[in-house]
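Q: Hi! First time doing this. I have a protein sequence and I read that you can turn it into a structure. Is that right? Here it is:
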Amino acid sequence: MDGAAPVVLGPEDGDISPEGRVRDRFLLEAHQTGGRFALVEHRFEPHSLAAPMHRHSREDEYTYVVRGRIGAITDDREVLAGTGDLVHKPRGQWHTFWNPGDEEARVLELISPGGFEQLFRWIMTHPVEDPAELAVEAASYGAEVDMEATARLLQEHAGEFDF
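A: Yes, that's right. Below is the predicted 3D structure, encoded as structure tokens:
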């Protein structure tokens, strides 16, 4: 990024995952920022869970709500965030987030340091049918996935979102 030419991305520029209830738009990746951070836009269909309950050991995540609202759990606290709100998900804390509303939600996800966004890319190209496969891939990024906690969350929020 040092000495690189400025980049301007339009509203539909950047790699965008082709399908899914939560689509990712890659704005800046670790290889473009010297590893310092990554910036990904998540586009949530109504009533969509972004990810299973998980935690990572290397990165902090900052989720800025651009449109709509999201629910999030971080460190056993459940919060609701709306347009203009920022949710901090520190490394080492179990967390997940979802769109509980009837309209699309969009968030900007800042990941620091960068690199974890490559797991999102992997998921884009490898539809996950076996949670054990996701757990193995997540572990390669220093992350853990808790499918039992995810199942409890789905039961608790039945009708609020789908996975």
